Amino acid sequence: MWKVFWNIELLDEHAEGDAFMKMDLRSDTVTKPTETMLRAMAEAEVGDDVYREDPTVNRLEQLAAERLGKEAALFVTSGTQGNQVAVLTHCVNGDEVIAEAESHIFYYEGGAMSALAGVQTRTLAGERGALRPEDVEKAIRGNNIHFPRTKLICLENTHNRAGGAVVTVEQMKGVYDVAQKHGIPVHLDGARLFNAAVAQGVDVCELSQYTDTVQVCLSKGLSAPVGSILAGDRAFIEEARWWRKKLGGGLRQAGYLAAPGIIALTEMVERLREDHERAQQLAAGFRKLSLTVEPVETNIVLVRTDSIQETAVDFLQRLADRGVLAVDFDEYVIRFTTHRHIDEQSVAKVLEVVEKLLGAAKCSG
Ligand SMILES: *Cc1c(COP(=O)(O)O)cnc(C)c1O
User: Fold this and answer.
1) pLDDT for the residue 363
2) How confident is the model over 152-174, as pLDDT tens digits?
3) Residue ID of nearest Cα to ligand 1 atom 5
4) Is 80 touching ligand 1 by the criterion CB < 6 Å?
5) Does residue 228's CB lie within 6 angstroms of at least one atom of ligand 1?
6) Which residues are annotated with the PTM N6-(pyridoxal phosphate)lysine (predicted)?
7) Tell me: the pLDDT tens digits for 25-75?
8) How close is the Cα of 107 to the center of ligand 1, in Å?
9) How confident is the model at residue 21 (pLDDT cuts 50, 70, 90)?
């Protein structure tokens, strides 16, 4: 019955074939749901989640809270919604939020922190994405009639623009200790927190214990089609639920979307290791071709194109013409992201295409 309804065989063939053919390394968000996920969706028991009557959403939220070592969790439509609901719940208009200078929440969310929560951002340059505790302590506002109030500190792990850099347990603890001392909550944008945990060989709770609230994406390397989790203490999540509704994020039979999220958390975490291996292989191949590659710690590979005197956008166009997709991160930086649809064979093909392009550039130059 579920097979007929969802036409699963066709869907999955499409899912694997399509991404493989195109060698789409733009993001791990392009991963399509697994067959197990599609089956779980078709068979999900559902209800109206605004009335909190969707048993599958309730199960996902409980499971996510346990996995992250928090009292409660909320299923949200996206990582952006999870982060913004967190800022809205922690702050009021005019508050100041400390965030890393190239953090997603500041750099890639359409100015939502200021537009929606009405907060101002105090950005600090991190060290491969990690904020230094002493910098955070210096940036925390004192009690002065002229000052805004520092109400939130945001961390990101892994750090996207720093090239999937891992923030260590010690680094997280360092910032959290300062935050605790000053009574300021810490929110973690953990869109790829499971990548950080797997890369360090620690349980995800080792990292999330040094946060008050945490957002994790189910729809990136974990392959769920939609959604993120926001977790924290019970009172915070109650208030966050109100903000999510206000933003239009109160969904009804959302169990169909929560079901693959449960699979993401229970079955898809350990395999992130494979994505990290593919990224290492890709980086090693690029280095062999004399390209400059930033250190690779997880599933993101940043390659510089200045050594070949070609902008990222131009090089990407030539790659796309040969079926390899990636994204530009700076004028001379390209980001390649590995994921479930990129196997060893795809890595070899990407390297083959890049080698040919470099050869062609040399001849014409
Ligand atoms: C992808 C990402 C987000 C946002 O997730 P969406 O689901 O795309 O809104 C937030 N933070 C980081 C670090 C991300 O990589």
Assistant:
1) 52
2) 999 999 999 999 999 999 999 99
3) 79
4) yes
5) yes
6) 220
7) 999 999 999 999 999 999 999 999 999 999 999 999 999 999 999 999 999
8) 11
9) low
CB 337 near ligand 1, within 6 Å:
no
Q: Is 191 near ligand 1, meaning CB less than 6 Å away?
A: yes
- Cα(223) to ligand 1 centroid in Å equals 14
Q: For residues 128 and 301, what is the distance between their CA atoms, to the nearest angstrom?
A: 14
- Compute the distance between CA of residue 24 and CA of residue 22 in angstroms, rounded to an integer: 5
Between CA 146 and CA 111 the distance in angstroms is: 24
Residues near 293 by beta carbon (within 8 Å), at least 6 away in sequence: 283, 286, 287, 301, 302, 303, 304
pLDDT computed for residue 360 by the predictor = 74
Where are the domains positioned within the chain?
Answer: 2-31+270-364, 35-267
Q: Which of 158, 189, 194, 337 to mutate to test the pocket of ligand 1 (most atoms within 8 A of CB)?
A: 189
In CATH terms, the fold of domain 2-31+270-364 is Aspartate Aminotransferase, domain 1 (3.90.1150)
Pocket of ligand 1 contains residue 217 by CB under 6 Å? yes
Q: CATH assignment of 35-267, given 3.90.1150.10, 3.40.640.10, 3.40.50.150, 3.40.50.360?
A: 3.40.640.10
Instruction: Output the pLDDT for position 268.
Output: 98
Helix (H) or strand (E) holding 362: helix 344-364
In the prediction, which pLDDT does 362 show?
53
Which atom belonging to ligand 1 lies closest to the Cα atom of 103?
Answer: 13
Average pLDDT, the chain: 94
State whether the beta carbon of 56 lies less than 6 angstroms from ligand 1: no
pLDDT at 278: 98
